[in-house]
What does this fold into?
Amino acid sequence: MDATTVTRAPVLILLGPPGAGKGTQARKLEDKYGLVQLSTGDLLRAAVAQGTEAGKQAKAVMEAGELVSDEIVIAILRDRIAEADCAQGVILDGFPRTTVQAEALDALLAESGQKINAAISLEVDDAAMVDRISGRYTCAGCGEGYHDTFKTPKQSGVCDHCGGTEMKRRADDKAETVASRLEAYHAQTAPLIGYYDSKGALSRIDAMGKIEEIAAGLGAIVEKATG
Ligand code: AP5
It folds into this structure.
């Protein structure tokens, strides 16, 4: 069996720098294929909001645009992926982000005889990412993502997904923090493209186009990897 063999519920990874559209596309794949989006960024922000020990340790690191320790992130991911809903298949958004995390994921999946189906690299220009991130906001109710220019709700201030009217912006979405986040991506996460390529599990997609066009391309990759 090669690295893309499906043995159980699908496990897909979205790789890409901040602003590449991982969260936007993961939510679409979730809706279309009934997979569960697992975003370690969302899990960490929830831990910060709840004031857990992990959240207290993560808060300043996230605000500086650096990576939270492998130990904390792996523990959070391990707990979440063990929950019942994940048995239907998962899309990992923002995890793994280091080689240590990628190896930990391989080991975790191997415990249940699983492997990842595909790691999909969203390929973008760094220069466009600052615009994407600085215009981003999300629905406080359901987490649906929007953008001041590129993705506005049908009715201004009202979430298309849940009808909520409270929108929020992230503390780390400032231009200076985005630069640190991009630096962390290139130094610590981009090497994972080679890691998954060497396992025969990598697909690449041009993520500079329109959201719906990228979603269609991703859907084709997902169907091939899980069909
Ligand atoms: P995380 O929450 O994972 O943030 P990120 O990787 O920096 O990614 P983003 O959420 O900023 O971008 P995205 O690719 O999801 O883009 P989106 O779809 O929103 O991590 C935050 C922090 O948590 C990290 O810095 C780190 O400290 C910590 N952390 C998390 N995981 C970790 C881990 N595994 N290890 C260690 N630390 C970890 O799109 C962006 C905007 O662009 C949106 O407004 C969207 O509407 C718009 N948009 C999307 N696609 C397009 C398009 N094609 N054209 C135009 N606009 C678009």
